[in-house]
Design brief:
This is Carboxylesterase type B domain-containing protein. The chain is an alpha/beta fold. It is built from 6 helices and 8 strands. It is about 30% helix and about 15% strand.
């Protein structure tokens, strides 16, 4: 005959297995399915209960035959996008990229001026957006959407500098939650190269064209994140 302690052990064993399962369900990564282009975007949730989606592509990589050309929308299915890493910044002029450059490091700490920030994670394939929303936001929430286009004289800047999570957290505390979207766009010679040949080719102000296509992406897909596209 089984002892009393043995019976208790067997009766509580399912609960022991259930605890990790509950924890896993509670910490599942936020996932959003978009339609233009078709993709499943997998993000993360920070300690302030803000869902973060980084580096979502809104255009084909502006490289090779698309370098110095107007941005092209993505027409094919992307599949799963793991949007949890810091998005790559577009190539740009920087005051310094040397981490041992003490004067610029101090200025970067005391200010939020892009020219003094250490942007070393850069690449030409940079046409992406970051999205921030209150954790648990449903697709039918229709929250107001704030789209941030960073400044910098068309020379410097990146979504990595302007995270937006604190802004969303503050909006929640005020009882007026919003969704925050920021975009990377081509800068300097890659986005605003001057000259008659560039103008004739229809490739002037490419950075502004990038911004326009990013705004179109927001209009097409932000409802899936719980934002109001209107």
């Amino acid at each position: 005959m089984l002892s009393t302690w043995t019976l208790i052990l067997f009766s509580t064993w399912p609960l022991v297995w259930a605890v990790p399962a509950q924890k896993k369900a509670a910490t599942a990564n936020p996932t959003v399915i978009i339609s233009k282009p078709k993709a499943t975007v997998i993000g993360s949730t920070d300690l302030n209960k803000i869902d973060k989606f980084n580096g979502i592509p809104f255009a084909l990589p502006p490289t090779a035959h698309l370098r110095l050309k107007p941005p092209q929308p993505i027409q094919t299915s992307i599949g799963a996008i793991k949007a949890t890493s810091t998005a790559k910044s577009c190539p740009q002029f920087l005051f310094s990229t040397d981490k041992k450059d003490i004067p610029s490091s101090i200025i970067a700490t005391l200010t939020n001026i892009p020219i003094f920030q250490k942007i070393t994670n850069a690449a030409e394939d940079c046409l992406t957006l970051d999205v921030r929303r209150p954790s648990g936001t449903q697709p039918d929430a229709k929250l107001p959407v704030l789209v941030w286009i960073f400044g910098g004289g068309f020379e410097q800047g990146a979504t990595a500098i302007y995270d937006g999570s604190n802004f969303v957290a503050s909006s929640v505390k005020l009882g007026m939650p919003v969704i925050f979207v920021a975009m990377n766009y081509r800068l300097g010679g890659f986005g605003f190269l001057p000259g008659a040949e560039i103008l004739k080719d229809g490739s002037a102000n490419l950075g502004l064209m990038d911004q326009r296509l990013a705004l179109q992406w927001v209009a097409d897909n932000i409802a899936a994140f719980g934002g109001d596209p209107s």
